[in-house]
Amino acid sequence: MTMIFGIPLQAVLGQLLIGLINGSFYAMLSLGLAIIFGLLRIINFAHGAMYMMGAFVGYLMLTWLGIGFWPALIAAPIVVGAFGAVVERFALSRLYNLDHLYGLLFTFGLALVVEGSFRHYFGASGQPYPVPDALRGATDLGFMKLPNYRGFIVLISLVICIGAWALIEKTKLGSYLRAATENPTLVGVFGVNVPLLLTLTYAFGAGLAGLAGVLAAPILQVSPLMGQNLIVIVFAVVVVGGMGSIGGAIVAGYLLGLFEGLTKIIYPEAANIVVFVIMAVVLLFRPAGLFGKDI
After folding, report:
1. For residue 66, is it left (φ>0), alpha (ψ between -120 and 50) or beta?
2. 294: confidence class by pLDDT, cuts 50, 70, 90
3. Which of 45, 145, 186, 203 could form a disulfide with 85 if both were Cys (CB 3.0 to 4.6 A apart)?
4. Pick the CATH number of 3-115+143-285 from 1.20.1530, 2.30.29, 2.40.128, 1.10.3470
5. What share of the chain is helix, strand, coil (3-state, %, to 5)?
6. Which of 32-36, 118-122, 221-225, 289-293 comes out lowest in average pLDDT?
7. Which of the four pLDDT bands, split at 50, 70 and 90, describes residue 255?
8. Is 32 left (phi over 0), alpha (psi -120 to 50) or beta?
9. b vs e for 7-23, b when ≥16 Cβ sit within 10 Å of the residue's Cβ?
10. Selection from 149, 146, 138 nearest residue 13 by Cα
11. Sign of the CA dihedral 215, 273, 27, 229?
C-alpha cells in the first residue's frame, strides 16, 4: 500500500477531496466579498449573515411553500440579492464618500440584526434540509466513495466562480463596473446609470453568498449561527488572495481548502488555524496578498 507521511494514500486523497469541497464554499463566499470590496470598497461583514439567509430562504421555501430543491436553489440567491440591493440603495450608497470604517461598522451591525432576528424566531438549533433525490447516493472513486451531492457542489462552484470572473474581467458590463468605481462621474457622462450598476454589484455579491448558503444547507443544516465562524475564515481567504482580486479570491479559496484538508492528516490539531497561519505568512512577505496590487 502506498504511504504518504506514513498515512495510506487513500486516506490522503480522501481528505484532499474533502478539503476541495470546503474550498468550494470558501471560493464562492470569498468571490462575493472580493467583488463587493474590489468594486464598491465596502468591507462587507454582513456576508456571513447573507450566507445564512440564503440557507433559511431555501428552507422556508421547502417547508412553507412546498416547492422543490431546484426551484429553491434558484430563488434563494435571488431573494438574498434583492435584499442586498435594498441595503445598498438605501444605506450603503450614503457611505461611499466616507471612511471605509463606516461601511464596516454598518455591515457588522446589519449582520448582528439579521442573525439576531433569525435566532429569535427560529432558535439556535439546526434545521434539516433534505438532499434532492437526484443527488442521493455516492460514486465509487476507487480510493473513496464520494457523496453525489458533494461532487455536485464542487462542479457548480467551479462553474459559478469561472463564470463570475469572466463576467467581470472579460465583458463590457464588467468594464463598465470597474470604470464606474474608478471614475463614476466620467462613466455617467457616457449615459451609464452608475448608481444602478453599484446596486447590482452589491446584489450580485450578496446573491453569491445566498447561493453558497442554500448549497451548504443539506451538509451543515440550517442555523442562524452557521455564518458566524465561516465568515472569519473567508475574510482570511480574501486577504491571502488579495483584497479586491476576483481571481485571487477564487484560487485562494480552493488552495486553502486543500491545505486545510491536508493539515487534518498531518497535524489535525492545527486544522482549525492553518488558514490564519498562512494568512499571517502571506502578509509578512506580501502585504497586498498573493494576487493583490501593491499600492
Report:
1. left
2. low
3. 203
4. 1.10.3470
5. 75, 5, 20
6. 289-293
7. very high
8. alpha
9. eeeeebbbbbbbbbbbb
10. 146
11. positive
Cell numbers describing residue 259: 491545505
C-alpha to C-alpha distance for 222 and 242, rounded to whole angstroms: 30
Contact (CB, 8 A) for 241 and 248: yes
CA–CA separation, 274 and 257 (whole Å):
10
**How far is it, in rounded angstroms, from Cα 228 to Cα 234?**
11
DSSP element (H, E) containing 18: helix 9-40
The domain locations on the chain are 3-115+143-285
pTM of the complete model: 0.91
| pLDDT given at position 288 | 85
Which pLDDT band holds residue 100 (cuts at 50, 70, 90)?
Answer: confident
Give me the phi and psi of 291, to 5 degrees please.
Answer: -120, 10
Question: For residue 270, what is its C-alpha cell?
Answer: 492545527
The vertex-216 CA angle with 85 and 202, nearest 5°, equals 15
Q: Which residues contact 285 (CB under 8 A, 6 or more apart)?
A: none
